[in-house]
Amino acid sequence: MNADVAPAPILRAVRGLRHLPMTGLKAAIAASALIALHGAAQAAELSITVTNLTRATWLTPLLVTAHPAAFKSFTAGTAASVEIQQIGEAGNTAPMEAILPAGSSKSVNPNNGPLKPGATSLPAKLLGGAGTTNTQLSILAMLVPTNDGFVAMNAIDIPTMPGSYVYMLNAYDAGTEANDEKAAVAGGINQPGMIFPPFLNDDSGKLTPTINTHAAGFANATKEGYVHIHRGILGSAPGGPSALDNTVYRWLNPVARVVLTVK
Q: Taking residues 63-70, what's their average pLDDT?
C-alpha cells in the first residue's frame, strides 16, 4: 500500500461526511478517520532476536533487513548469486547489503560478533511493515563450520498486527562448493574446504580437538550448482575423512529460532 494514500474505507468515510450537518458526531467520526489514516502511514518498530539451536555450529555475524516485496536474496532450486556465495562460503554479508533496494532498513551484526551454539542474539532494531514499502523480513548468516552452508529467513511477510511471532529457520546449501568437509587452505570464496575462524578455538586458544585439520575430506564430493535445503554435516570418527567429529557437529533442521516483535 502506498503510504501517501488513505485506505479505501477511510476515504469513503471522510467523503461521506460532506453530506452530513456539522455535529459533534460528525466531528468525532472525522477525527477517528484522520487518526486511522495517520496510523496507517506509520512504520512499525521491529525487534528481532535469533537463537542458535545447534550443538556446536556457530552463526557468523547476522544481516537482518526489512525490504520491499520485489527483493529476494535467493530462490531455492536455482543457482546462487555471488552475494549468496559470499555468505555461504565466507560469511561476508557486505555484497548482499550493497544490492538491497534503496530505502531498505537493515541491522548488520546486531550481536556484535558471531552467535555461538545455544545463544540468543542481541535484538536487531528496524522500522518496516504495514504503511511502508519495507513489508518483508530477511535474515542471513553463514553456518560455521560448513563448506557453503547458511541460515536464512527469505523475504517473509512482516505481520501487520502488533505482537510477538516465532519462526523456525532451516539451513541452506549454496551449492557453490563441494561438501568435502576438509580444512580450507585459504579463506574467501572459490576456495575448497571449510574455514575455521578463531571463535572455534577452545579456552586455551587452540583449535578444538574435535576438528582435525589434517583430514583428507570426502574425495567424491561435488558441488550441486543450486541452492537447496542443507542435508547437514556427515562428519566421521576420529581419523576418518571428515575434519569434523560426527558425535559433535552433526545437526538437523531447523537450526535457528527467530522471535519477531512488532510494536
A: 98
**What's the CA gap between 139 and 120, in Å, rounded?**
14
User: In terms of Cα–Cα distance, which of 192, 170, 197 is closest to 181?
Assistant: 192
pLDDT at 18 over 70: no
Report phi then psi at 93, rounded to 5: -90, -10
Element (H, E) at 9: helix 8-16
| Contact of 204 with 150, CB cutoff 8 Å | no
The cell numbers describing 135, all together, are 513489508
Helices (H), 17-58: 24-40
* Helix, strand or coil, per DSSP, at residue 47: strand
Single-letter residue type at 175: G
CB 200 within 8 A of CB 142: no
Q: What is the pLDDT of residue 42?
A: 67
CA angle 4, 68, 12 (to 5 degrees): 30
Q: pTM of this prediction?
A: 0.84
For cell 551484526, what's the residue?
109
